[in-house]
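Hi F.,

I've been meaning to write this up properly since the lab meeting, where we talked about keeping a consistent format for the predictions we share between groups. The idea is simple: the sequence comes first, exactly as it goes in, then the structure tokens exactly as they come out, then a line or two of notes. No screenshots and no reformatting. I'm using this chain as the first example so we have something concrete to point to.
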Amino acid sequence: MCARKVWTLQEILAKIIQNITKDRCFWAGKLLLLLTVACLLCSGSAELGEGPRMGEEYWLSAGWQQQSSYTLSGYGAAEVRELTRPEQGESLQRRIYDFADGSFFLQQRSIYSGAVAADLLLELPLDAQSLRLRYYDGAAWQNVNGLPEQLPLTTLFFDLTLNDGSRQQLIVSPVYAYETRENASLRWREDWCGTLQLLREESGYVLRIYSGTAEAHRCEFWLLRGAALVDWQAADAEALWARCALADSNRWCWDGYYYSTPSTYLPYGEDYFYSMPSPYIAAHLLQADQPGAAELLPLVMLDVMRGRLNEQGFVPMSTVSTWLHEAYGIGKNYYDTRWNTDLAESWLLAYQRLGVTELLDAAVRYADFLTSYAEAHHFTVGERGWLVYDYWQEGADNANHCSLNHQAAEAVFLYRIYRETGAEEYATCADALLMGIGSSLELWRRADKDLNYALTPELQVVGTDYPYLTYNDLLALQAELVEVLGAESAGINTLLGDKLIWMQRNGVTGYKGYSAE
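Output, unedited:
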């Protein structure tokens, strides 16, 4: 089953007239014209050829039906549409972001209930006189000028010189294929993946995207096209996109961000991916502070993730953590304070960078949930200090523990959204979390200068701290205290000083402020 190009009547007539002018037999050409028009009027259809093309006919061709649409505010003023093309035994979904500057993002998911032959999912014309392909092979960047012999199974970056002399860029993901597993997990099937085919045409090139040949499965791909997506002359461009190309361990799927499943999560197996509440690649791209794809891709990802908020105001963790289940009886669909807070931080940052108020609305909605959660699910240290439980699941034993990195990250977010909105309840909650750290200060410290990972309600030490994550969180908290209170915290400085000594003694690198010199 192939997607088909929709030719408008005007296009067909223009093509025929063009042929007639080349025809030495005028009357034969005229008769051909009359017969063609008559056939079109009788059939009532103008569907000819293979592959959808650009324009409204392109998006809605071959039975596609628009299901929803909305406009994002701020940067890009994206017109967002979701479409479906229901077919017997399968479901096809397409998501489109049309940006005001002419850039567009397209994502498509196909769910097949039975065996399927290779299906032409999309045909994209590239009216270019030349092109250059870049891709990261896992060890180094590869560059190919002109038509490559084969397109590898990784994210592809095209630089195009169009026929009018202008420049465009195109980023295309692989056509990944998955088996759907329990707990919203996916098993990647490399042998089922689709293919990309790049061909030379008279007017330039054409990119054809095919599904694989497999049994019941889901396959999906995405692409982003625009005038200036990546500045490859920037010093850190290759390092950034080698990390953020959304291939290998990181996957961007129709329903959000997926990451390679660790052995402590269920289900677990070779090539398994779990749905993670926080799309960390979006955060890395935003923090790079680069225009183009480093803004457009996070905007799409964070917009999709705001649709994942449940009625309570957080994104559940769908897989089962074996150690959380064994220790506290927490099963699937639980609340993870860290990953949700990081997601909300990205919403807030994207709003501040791009002016998309819908993302601020999502951050505020989560902030409202976090403040009510912290009030209901904490243990008290000192007179008014709160240490908030890291995890929660409705109906489970939720007296678990509070880790220092979760607590610090929550306080940072609450102070930041307080500074953005002026809502006092966020600062009040953050103050209680700060007092919780201060009132338990000596319990976090160790003789070797490392920090303890977490405390239980009985103030017992749990786990081993991360090499530098908690240090970075405490450094961010100290910066927020200067912004909000006008002064640093002596207690936070004590913890920072201890952790810095331990990191330097143990050769830890990568923390904020680290220098190899």
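Notes:
Confidence is low (pLDDT under 50) at residues 1-55.
The first strand starts at residue 65 and ends at 71.

If this format works for you, I'll send the rest the same way.

G.
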